[in-house]
Request: fold
Amino acid sequence: MTISEQLACVIENIRKTRRARQISQIDLANRANISQSFLASLESGKKQPSVLTVIKLARALEVNPGDLFPRVIHEGKKPEDIKEEIRSLLNRL
Reply:
């Protein structure tokens, strides 16, 4: 899974969680203290969230921020390579 695919998965998990909890974009944006237009841009893939925004959205959705990230299988990879993948993903948020 590429970094871009992982970021898309984070955004999709935000959208799925919001919908599953029957929270409107306006309500979630207000709870997370971000604009509704920015949230709409995130969900449509036009913008990417910062780490702080992911944390705000996770708190507003009452989930652990880590739950929004995809589960990536790292079979056969060295710990240094895994750390670098994670670092790279976080730097792109």
Remarks:
- Residues 3-92 form a domain with the 434 Repressor (Amino-terminal Domain) fold (CATH 1.10.260.40).
